[in-house]
Design goal:
There is one protein chain. By secondary structure, this protein is an all-alpha fold. It is built from 3 helices and no strands. Helix 1 packs antiparallel against helix 3 and helix 2 packs across helix 3 (117-180). The longest helix has 73 residues, at 14-86. The relative contact order is 0.08. It comes from Drosophila mauritiana (Fruit fly). This is Augmin complex subunit dgt4.
């Protein structure tokens, strides 16, 4: 039977040590390359994610801006329509004359049975046409005030969104720059 070889305390030859060191350095280099590529892919993924978030915020901002533009356009159209209605001064003057004549008839001591049915119909017609715009005006003023409040809150929200988006982008860019920079060595 043979005896197993006994371990000896011999030093390896110099060539074997240099080869092993080269292999270790090569493996360390490969590991560093793999980490660099992995970090590069991670940075690209983060940048793509931030771009997607920014594009989503941009689309939302454009949608809100479009809504704001439509509100402004509707307000301008309403102002134009209201300005056009005021120009019917002749109708208002005629209605005032008719109402004055009816008032004089009603204010006289004559009995109501003497009133002409045409005059009563005209009076009702004038009341329906002249007083409705006042009701509409109150409603339109209320809606305009609500639209103005909505516009103010929308502007505040858009300003906050822009500021938040800008700060987020700056922070993300700062983080990416910090990640890409090599770590600093402190000298004590």
């Amino acid at each position: 039977m043979e005896t197993p070889p006994t371990p000896t305390t011999t030093t390896p030859p110099a060539l074997a040590t240099e080869g092993t060191m080269d292999d270790i350095q090569y493996l360390l280099h490969l590991e560093a390359m793999r980490r660099f590529q992995e970090d590069s892919r991670n940075v690209k993924r983060q940048v793509e994610e931030q771009v997607r978030i920014w594009l989503d915020a941009k689309c939302e901002y454009q949608r809100d801006f479009g809504r704001l533009a439509r509100l402004l356009k509707c307000g301008a159209l309403q102002a134009a329509v209201d300005a056009h209605r005021v120009s019917d001064v002749n109708q208002v003057e005629q209605a005032a004359k008719d109402i004055a004549s009816l008032r004089s008839k009603l204010g006289s001591d004559l009995r109501p049975a003497i009133l002409d049915s045409n005059d009563v119909k005209q009076c009702l017609e004038h009341l329906n046409t002249t007083h409705k715009p006042r009701l509409n005006l109150c409603r339109q003023q209320r809606e305009f005030a609500q639209n103005q409040e909505a516009l103010r809150s929308l502007r505040t929200a858009v300003d906050g969104l822009e500021n938040g988006m800008e700060m987020g982008m700056i922070q993300a860019m700062d983080r990416l720059v910090e990640d890409l920079l090599p770590p600093r060595e402190t000298n004590n």
